[in-house]
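Q: Could you fold this chain for me?
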Amino acid sequence: MSLQPPLPVRPAVPPPSAAEAAVPVRAAWPVPRIVAIGGGTGLPLLLRGLRDALFTPASRPLLGVEREALTALVTVADDGGSSGRLRSDYGVLPPGDIRNCLVALADDRRMATMFDYRFDGGGLAGHSLGNLILAALSRLEERFPAAVERAGEILGIQGRVLPATATDVRLVAELANGVHVEGESRIAAVGGEIRRVRLVPHDAPALPEARAAIAGADLVVIGPGSLYTSIIPVLLVRGIAEAIARSGARVVLVMNLMTEPGETDGMSAADHVRALLRHAPGLPVHDVVVAATTMPASRLDAYAAAGAQPVLADLDALRGLGCRPVRRRVLAKGEKLRHDARRLAAAVLARRPRSARA
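A: Sure. Below is the predicted structure, expressed as structure tokens.
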């Protein structure tokens, strides 16, 4: 833990890029164009569901426009595990969250299995093959976004995966007691109520392709995922939140099923929205998807022992914040409390784009 200077003032909203201004008319598209934001394990789960829903044999008219139909904007603030080691040893952006999203969208499942292979011994212990490939490609391509695109070609992904920024960023959390914690992997471990997080450098710019994807989006999906360490870091990248507000797209927040110890202890659904708005003032949140199914008590015991509890869906408070609660049966089967990818995609796709998109 170390003391840090006060949080900087958020920079002015950047003007639209040339790529944003050149976005084609939306009415010509057979389905809404979707931008999904986050990282961790939540974003890949959503992407798998959307991939299966959008790119099935029945959706053959989409051939040729898959890249623009679904875009994942992924955090690059991770500094733990294999990603942290590669970042420290080779100076590459952390590949782990990117790899998970690429695998989720992969058409070649054999290659996807290879990318997910994790070494369990020797000097490579803990590294996944996909992380090593992305690190190597970043050296060959000299730009990490180009390495991600090349990896997507190898996997034959349907859709696009973009790092939120090409800048090497670090995450710093300010706790309620005034202590500042640097490093995404340390924030939850230190624990304590989080007042705010910020990126260092604070003015890391979004990729032009990311801003253009948002400008052309009909639907922006935020989450599910770790609020302060996966979702908000993307929104803090200069140009991302502003582009969402300017786009007129419908914004859907997928609420986590459980609180995360050391990060969102005791936070309700409305508290999650308030945290988003503290970090990204002016960000529109139209719909909030919450689970309509009561969590089975038998499955909650292990989570309670670890300090996690179901996120309270305080529907009236959400409405007071200008959000529309959307209650859906999105709980997956199994011992772990997870969203069902197919059901979650259906819930998201059921939210019609704003009338301005018609």
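A (continued): The two ends are 50 Å apart (CA to CA).
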